Here is the input.
Amino acid sequence: MAARQMDPDAFFQVLKTRRVCRSFTGEPVSDEHLTRIIEAARWASSAGNRHIHKFLVVRNPDTIRNIRSVAPGMLSEPPAAVVILTDAEAARRESIQLELDTANHGDVGTAAMNMLNMAHALGLGACPVTSFSHSGVAVMLGLPPHLEPEWIIMLGHPAPVERNLNAGAPKPLTARDLTWWDAVGQHEP
Amino acid sequence: MPDDQPAAEVRLTEKQALDMLAFLASSAEISLHEPTYYGTFRLIDAASRLMGYLLESNPELADSFMPAWKADIDTRKVWMMWDRPAYYQFLKETPAVVAEEIRRREEGA
Here is the structure.
């Protein structure tokens, strides 16, 4: 489908209604859904079309529990997770110096964002996790040295959670708060 | 707990103990680069996780103060992400829960 045939309101609705989900029911995530989520990641923008990342799908509960033990950012045990890996051998083939490269983490982020939105569109909950011990996760997953875990995406069917916002809680930022038009400090177009 | 009474024993499985050790060591590592207030979050989350394991392995604790305190921590710890003043106030208040439990036991109530 050409982009111009899409319904921008429907698309924006997916973006706007997505929230980070940290509580999941025990219902497994189907392989069909996981495959669609990975497909969404594959179609994320990739600097220079380099595609130096791999996506490791984890469904074994024992492995997920082990990962969580070294991932303080995983506040619950999801039924599935996708670990985004940087493949240093792929990077070497592309003559990328990872220690100097500034696009790598951007590409991790775009892949993650596509997964979060696809999961939401499928009725699933998802949460990106960046707070974990890279060496610990590498051991838990038996990763070879050329694969570096970058982000973990928790996936599952969302459990209902009361958010319990205080009446005096800070108001959420708006797009206007974050935007300047043509000059720094100019909030109006 | 009065000195002349034996302390009740609670247990963790080896797996639970190792998970806690891994969590604490990993929290120490990531505290090297995370915002400083995340350190407080890791500590209060460790308290919640420890209670989770204790409740898993010691069903008799279901009647203790722990289920309610754990639920309260799990509800309010995440305020760190969107209402930091309320989160800090929660951190100031919550040690009183376990302090009161220690006093209650000391007094044999």
Observations:
- Chain B has five helices and no strands.
- Chain B has a mean pLDDT of 92.
